[in-house]
Amino acid sequence: MNFEYLRDWIGKQQTAVDVLAEAPLAGLAALLNYDAIAGVAPWRDGALPPLGHWLHFLLHAKQSEIGEDGHPQRGGFLPPVELPRRMWAGGTVYFDTPLRVGSTVQRRSTITAVDPKSGRHGNLVFVTVKHELIIAGSDAPALIEHQDIVYREAAVGGQVAVAPSVGVILECDWSREFRADPVLLFRFSALTFNGHRIHYDRAYASDVEGYPGLVVHGPLSATLLVDLFLRRHPGADVRAFSFRGLRPLFDTRPFQLCGKETGNGADLWILDADGQIAMSASLEAR
């Protein structure tokens, strides 16, 4: 398959404006099991928590524009990749200026890379989008994010594509067992207006996309890792966060959130039920 024409989307831009609201943050706090009466626990009062911008700038596609997988139909801003399986593979976020509830913020999005590849499980296309969040009245971005999206071929014979096992796993300083049950996955889908059926439609996830259970959202896994750090360091000023999804996580089995202190933050990772690294991340703070 020839995907070279997709490179024509490199440089394409899109802008959106949103007013940062408190209600989605209250929803996230409830999902993470914080007591709303006690406040939005380790988050600074009035400021979005790290990754809280993911609850804003949501794409509200019309119902008639939704594809079979629950995502908006291909084309438009993102390139029209014909591979059926689409997932958030990872990314890096740089935090410069705090984003505060009530602020009007513009998000400027630019497609910076489109990389067709062939892997062990067939054709892949990686798309990188750069998001810049600019507070009204300012010129410099308050936050810069590089988001990596991967498109894959359909599953064959129930096969689930995963990265090779990681041979060396660090000894963690702190950890937490977690299980993402179907209700939690549904609530996160609702918070992020994510209609992707692999997160709540078990029949679709197994019969169409070949997964053994409901898939845990990549952004949810990343959010859980940042939350693990903030539970140990309430009020920390997070400056950068980078994560990479390696293996899918499912609602059928618990997984382990792990962290190890570094000189300026932490190395973070998730071990799946088989003891393999499902997501790796690094966080810088001061």
Folded structure, characterized:
This protein is α+β, with helices and mostly antiparallel strands. 14% of the residues lie in helices and 33% in strands. It contains 4 helices and 10 strands; from the N terminus they run βαβββββαααββββ. Helix 1 runs antiparallel to helix 2 (182-191). The longest helix has 15 residues, at 218-232. The radius of gyration is 19 Å and the shape is globular. The mean pLDDT is 89.
Topology summary:
Elements: E1 13-19, H1 23-31, E2 85-95, E3 104-119, E4 122-135, E5 143-152, E6 174-178, H2 182-191, H3 202-207, H4 218-232, E7 238-245, E8 255-262, E9 265-271, E10 277-285
Antiparallel strand pairs: 1-3, 2-5, 2-7, 3-4, 4-5, 6-8, 7-10, 8-9, 9-10
**Overall SS class:** alpha+beta
Largest sheet: 10 strands, antiparallel
Task: State the helix count.
Answer: 4
Strand line-up in the sheet with most strands: 1-3-4-5-2-7-10-9-8-6
Task: Please state the overall shape, judged from the principal axes of the Cα atoms.
Answer: globular
Overall average pLDDT:
89
- SSE string, helices as H and strands as E: EHEEEEEHHHEEEE
How many E strands? Answer: 10
Report the portion of residues in β strands.
Answer: 25-35%
User: In percent, how helical is the residue content?
Assistant: 10-25%
Radius of gyration, in Å, reads: 19 Å
